[in-house]
Amino acid sequence: LQRATPRLALGYLMLVAAGFATSAVEQGNFLSLQALSQRYAASGGSDPALYEALRGVVSANRNGIHFIDKIMGGASITLFCLALYRGRLVPPLLAGFGMLAGLLQMAAIGQELFSRDFHVLMLAPLALTVLLLSLTLLVRGFRPPPGQAA
Asked: Among 11-15, 34-38, 78-82, 87-91, which stretch is predicted with the lowest mean pLDDT?
C-alpha cells in the first residue's frame, strides 16, 4: 500500500493504531466489569443496589468506548478500500463496495451510539467485503494488475 498510495497508507496505519488503542481501553473496561461481577458473587449478593449502580457505570463506560472502537473500524476499512482503489490493487467495483460498506457500518454503529436501534443486516455488506477482499488479496496479492506500473 505504501508504494501505491503513501499518504493513504499512513492514514490507514494511524487509524489502525487508534483503533488498537480504543480496543485496549474497551478490554480494560470489560475486565473492570468482570472484576465487579466476581466481587458481587464473592459477597454472597449482599447490597445488590450498590453493585447494580456500579454495574451501570462500568457497563456504560465499556459501551461508550465500544461504539467508538467500532466506528474507528469502519473508518479504517473505508480508508483501506480507498487506498486499494487509488492504487488499483483490487477491482474498482470491489473497492467501491468496500468503501460503501464501511460507511454503512459507521452509520449503523452511530445510530446505536445515540441510543437508536439499527438492523443487524446493515453490517452484512462489511462482512461480505472483508471476505471478498481477503479472497481477492490471497489470490492476487498486493500487486497492480498486469500491464500497470508498480
From this structure: 34-38
